[in-house]
Amino acid sequence: MALLPNNEYNLLIKIKGKEFRFNFWSILSPFYSSINIIRYSIIGESIIDLPDREITMHIYDNSVLAEEIANHSNNPFDIESPPFYVRKYVEEKTKYDLLFMVYLSLLNKSSKSTQLADFSIQTNAPGDLKDLLDLLKRSYLEWEEMIRGLNNRGRAKPVYVVKGGNNEYPLSERGF
Predict the structure, then answer these.
(1) Residue 91's CB: how many other CB atoms inside 10 A?
(2) Predicted TM-score (pTM) of this structure
(3) Radius of gyration of the chain from Cα atoms?
(4) Please, are residues 126 and 103 in contact by the beta-carbon 8 Å criterion?
(5) DSSP secondary structure code for residue 172 in this structure
(6) Cis peptide before 82 (omega within 30 of 0)
């Protein structure tokens, strides 16, 4: 029996009256980034409490989205060896989605204050994350344009120069 891709498997093993439960995922395809790339990026400290499963599912969802965008834009790519811009799109979009999720959870907890005698602490909404979210959004939208084929960066091809008929140099030669 072969495992089907993109499935979660739950195992229940009974040995001498004891039950052991395991679960795992078969290979996810497409999967155009990695958990470590996301964890060790600029948002790593913000998502330290997120389980790997959450990050994995966002990477998978954004990989599927990248394929759908490319196919819808008539700009398909080789899924076995995706171009750099596809991998960067998935990475940036995943970072944006995860940070946005953290941002929303912090908004729900914002503006709390604690006081002990004369000492008070007030936490406000995470305004610094908003700037980072805007930066990540601009970044993933640029990569998305490349998936759509709207941006020609990186597609330059060398051409040969055709010599003109006149081979004379207009200035006199200098002697050293």
Answers:
(1) 22
(2) 0.73
(3) 26
(4) yes
(5) P
(6) no
